[in-house]
Amino acid sequence: MEKGRLEAFSDGVFAILITITVLELKAPHGVSLSDLASVLPLFLNYVLSFLYLGIYWNNHHHLLKACRRIHGGIMWANLHLLFWLSLFPFVTDWAGENHSAPLPTAIYGAVLFLASVAYFVLQYLIVTEQGCDSKLAAAIGRDWKGKLSSLLYASAILAAFLQPWIAQAVYALVALFWLVPDRRLAQALKGV
């Protein structure tokens, strides 16, 4: 498969996921601020999921830009990542509608965790294809940011059963953590 086709397909999936996620937002049935407060948890979950989809889209773009060749393993790993990301509209809606419930909060975190694992697998396969001495491998390094994120998701899943707000805070913190641009990858890929 050509790299361009994989990028186009993935970009289309990202666009559809963002669209489906926003379609789950329903306007309140009133015109006062108190009516708006009733949809605030769902709106905040939407904002968080939008950020995560944007973060994944951005990092996915840089990762595929570095990729010279696509093989079947990379295609399946990419599809694996898109599968977990495709669950964002569902878990966004469920956790938003039940924002103080442990199970929906934990399942939201489980999807975040599994998406991070799927991204790691895709990244690993692309780095392996490029070679351990490639610019991409040097830019990613030991990927402490990715490993720490997965660890935080796992701990937040457990925290959801004690205090859901702690898990929600961790999910938001990890998103903020990723909003800080990692210039190593962009710098290493200049001219690629």
Summarize model confidence as the mean pLDDT: 90
| Main beta sheet strand tally, sense and closure | none
Shape: globular
Q: Note the beta-strand portion.
A: under 5%
Distance between the termini: 19 Å
C-alpha-based Rg, rounded: 18 Å
Number of strands: 0
Estimated helix fraction: over 70%
| Number of DSSP helical runs | 10
Taking pLDDT < 50 over at least 5 consecutive residues as the criterion, the unreliable ranges are: none
Structural class: mainly alpha
How would you sum up this structure, described in words?
The protein has helices spanning 3-23, 33-37, 40-66, 72-86, 88-97, 102-130, 135-140, 144-160, 164-179, 183-188. The model has no long low-confidence stretch (mean pLDDT 90). It contains ten helices and no strands. It is mainly alpha-helical and 192 residues long. α3 (40-66) runs parallel beside α9. 79% of the residues lie in helices and 0% in strands.
Keywords:
mainly alpha; 192 residues; 0% strand; globular
In short:
This protein has 192 residues and is mainly α.
List the helices and strands and how they pair.
Layout: H1 3-23, H2 33-37, H3 40-66, H4 72-86, H5 88-97, H6 102-130, H7 135-140, H8 144-160, H9 164-179, H10 183-188
Helix pairs in contact: 1-3, 1-4, 1-5, 3-5, 3-6, 3-9, 4-6, 5-6, 6-8, 6-9, 8-9
